[in-house]
Amino acid sequence: MSGVYARGVARIRHRTRSDIFEIDANELDWNQVAADERQMGVEVEHEAVIEHAELGMLVWRLWEYPLGMENDREVDLNGHEAIDHIDFGLSDADVDADIEPEDDRLSERLSALPAQLDQLEVAIAKLRDLAPMLGHNQPPEEARIGVSDVDLAQIPPAIDAIRTELASPDPSMDADIVVVDGARRPFELLRDKIMGWLKWAGPKLGGGLVTAIGGYAGKELLEHHATILHQLGAVIDTLAMWVQHLTLLI
User: Which long-range contacts (CB under 8 A, 24 or more apart) does 89-95 make?
Assistant: First the structure.
């Protein structure tokens, strides 16, 4: 089972006043609050709750399903408005973030990023190839592919932008924070689309999905979405750390 990472600061505007309050990610105390058996194993719900003197109860939730894969997330700010969000997601519980200095961890992640981007390009190309396998069975629209060509078309430019910043003399110091942060957003949008599709498709694994899509294609599409979600998570985690580091340099 994995743990949850959280970094950055949430800036929240009061729902009836103009006051803005800040919540640091270090204030979030994550707990496992539920574990339910499902078709692909256990679904675990992680939750962090803050009782704020002015804002009331604030809740961050993340679902892990199957184990080791982020399935969904939500933030309940008690009706208040989020100006800036805390970045949070699933991480390897076996990795202790305090063991290794932040700069060293970032350097290692940036070194691994080109290979991760290569793998993601291959996976997205395969996802495009899977679309015709849906055949003539005319499944429900949401079952057809999960993400559209428009969603996928945003990824190559984002990958190119990241590779350009990685080519700078010292990416951890010289990269353009606006470019890196802007390139991160298409990956996050694609991740959210895939998580939504997996949330729809997962319960239908026992037969409904396979029947709707058509045999082998249904199973492979489900498995491949999960693979891409894992790859996106690794890239997004690195980009979030990179942006956080560059922010501290400003």
Answer: 89/4, 89/5, 89/62, 89/233, 89/236, 89/237, 89/240, 90/2, 90/3, 90/4, 90/5, 90/62, 90/64, 90/233, 91/2, 91/3, 91/4, 91/5, 91/237, 92/2, 92/3, 93/1, 93/2, 93/3
pTM: 0.57
CB burial class (10 A; 0-12, 13-18, 19+) of residue 148? Answer: exposed
- pLDDT, one tens digit per residue, over 23-56 is 999 899 998 888 888 777 788 899 999 999 999 9
Instruction: Report domain extents, the chain.
Output: 3-91, 102-249
Fold that domain 102-249 belongs to in CATH = Four Helix Bundle (Hemerythrin (Met), subunit A) (1.20.120)
Peptide bond into 186 cis (omega under 30): no
* 242 phi and psi angles, rounded to 5 deg: -65, -50
User: What's the mean pLDDT when you consider all of the chain?
Assistant: 79
